[in-house]
Amino acid sequence: MNKYVVGFLFDTRGRVALITKNRPAWQKGRLNGIGGHIENDETPEQAMVREFREEAGCDGLAWRQYCVVRGNVYELNVFTARSELAEIRSTTDEMVGWYSIDRLPDNVLPNLRWLIPMADYELPIKAEIVHESETC
Question: What is the spatial distance between Cα 127 and Cα 78, in angstroms, rounded to a whole number?
Fold first, then answer.
């Protein structure tokens, strides 16, 4: 089973950090949360810290896992964090940026339309979602 993390960093101005994907092919040109594969020796929390540092150049965030999405061949661990001072920058060929959570662009991946509001919710949420698909 392939295991992944994705994180949604929120600022105090009603924005979320997202990345414009170049790969995999089915995500090319679409906005997604920032994340990636969990390495064999990592916990989901460690992978989230590493992936955000590698892709957005930002470290020292307090990530909280709030959701796990499971499919036939994958597990996606979803995290949220908040920061008044976080600065993100593109560190790969995939561009990161801030986007208003109230006006998400048309090119966001469809599941972000409900994952982002769940992540932005202030009360502690712990959810497991089963999605019967070959991709996440």
Answer: 10
Tell me if 51 sits within 8 A of 5, measured CB to CB.
yes
Residue 34 near residue 19, CB atoms below 8 Å: yes
User: The domain that contains 10 carries what CATH number?
Assistant: 3.90.79.10
Q: Does residue 136 sit within a domain?
A: no
Question: pLDDT for 39-67, tens place per residue?
Answer: 999 999 999 999 999 999 999 999 999 88
Dihedral sign for Cα atoms in the order 19, 22, 23, 26? positive
- In the beta sheet, which residues pair with residue 6? 35, 78
Number of domains making up the chain: 1
Residue 39 placed within a domain? yes
Whether 136 has a pLDDT exceeding 60, the answer reads: no
Whether pLDDT at 127 is above 80: no
The whole domain housing 122 covers 2-130
Task: List, for residues 83-95, the tens digit of each pLDDT value.
Answer: 998 999 999 999 9
Specify which residues 4 forms β-bridges with: 37, 76
